Amino acid sequence: MNSKSIGAIAVVCAVVGISAAFLLSGMNSLETLDNNQEVSQISISNTFSEPVKISQSVDEAQPAPNITISDDGKIYVLYQDSVVNEIGTNLYLKTSTNNGKTFSESIRVNSIEGNVALDGRVPPAISLGENNQVFVLWANQTEEPEMRMGVYRQLIFAESLDGGQTFPSSMQIKTDLPAGKYFQDMMLSNDGTIHIAWLNGPSKLNEEGNLVKDKDRPRTLEYTQSTDGGKTFETTKSLMDDPCPCCNVQVAAGDDNVYVSWRAQFPNGEDKPAIRDMVIASSTDNGKTFSDPVRISEDNFEFDGCVHVGAPMEIDSKGNLHTVWYTGKEGAPGMYYSTSADNGKTFSEPMKVLVSDWIPPQRIFLTIDDNDTVWVTWEDATGLSTNDRSWRYGDTQAMIWTAQIHDGKLIRSETPININESKSLTAIESAQDIVSIVWTEKDNSIMYASNQQ
Questions:
Q1: What's the CATH code of the domain at 83?
Q2: Which residues contact 323 (CB under 8 A, 6 or more apart)?
Q3: For residue 159, what pLDDT is reported?
Q4: pLDDT: which is higher, 210 or 351
Q5: Number of structural domains the chain divides into
Q6: Sign of the torsion formed by the C-alpha atoms of 13, 17, 20 and 26
Q7: Average of per-residue pLDDT values in the chain
Q8: pLDDT at residue 437 in the model
Q9: Virtual CA dihedral for 232, 133, 248, 381, nearest 10 degrees?
């Protein structure tokens, strides 16, 4: 069973006509980045394969791919495609048993046509269980004119019992009271327990019978789990009231340790924007109870709004937790990396990945390979972002950088992965000495490349 975090690295990559292998070699000196951060570089002989196009999506679909790899090396790529109506699309799965040289025909995951939200910010989640099980989680979207943006989202869970060849049905993740659900993530622990977390927006029916926001209940960060392979899910529990309402939630799990990360809001005095720093809640009993959330770093990022980026996490073979995140903190906005060796109680001094006087909100993600090497990928939209001087992630242009972390040093490739500026999500995953990447190009084609170690 593959228990790695799904969607471990999400970045943007749009390369038109790229054909050369991605080179991560020739790094044998100290390099000073544009942001004046000194980064140690050593020789890395691995290269990424020539990209393979998995699918060509239409422009409006906003595809957000995701990837996972089974213990026997089978690759699963999940992506959105084919706009069905103004608010819905479909979700497809392709697999490869030869390290991405070829992929299977696409299998539609959602049993109801168009039952997938059009949102490129949040990729669908995929996890693998024992006995050929494939679990998928996504948000759907229905029209509700009284709700924000005129839509209402719920979480949909589907299971395949034949390795992703068929998804016969799906179910809705429910709460006791009506609520919109979004910015979700899913993870399996090593015993097969399914862990799901999301942002919860309370709602109710008004006198006309339309759904409206329920202002008498707070927004919450919700968690639930299933111990029977997704047949049933336990009553949800709130991990925090009034979190930042539009930033990605991430989940990581190993044996008995489960972690949920999100962006929290902290009071900041009168007439000041709230502080919006990343936090992690930890469980040492496989999700039965959680600690109070702990700030990864006291960045004191002041912002009156949502940044739309989260803090992905991974657990190494020794049980250490690794995380990366974006902050717009004063004087040093950008991307950071930190670890915890005590189950999320405390975190190491943040390592700078990309920091300057102005770094637009962009995504950074990580995975850990079978040798416990940390791989980091991030977007650098410096000078390219359509959101200059705005603390909000959106449709932008970016160059994509990949690095490894060894002995507390960031070892970065000399050149970005992509040739042309790009947009949209990418995902990276590792297993069986394979580091695999999927991404979306400018024309919304879904591409795949791998690094066979």
A1: 2.120.10.10
A2: 261, 278, 280, 296, 311, 312, 313, 314, 337, 338, 339, 340, 347, 366
A3: 97
A4: 351
A5: 1
A6: negative
A7: 83
A8: 76
A9: -170
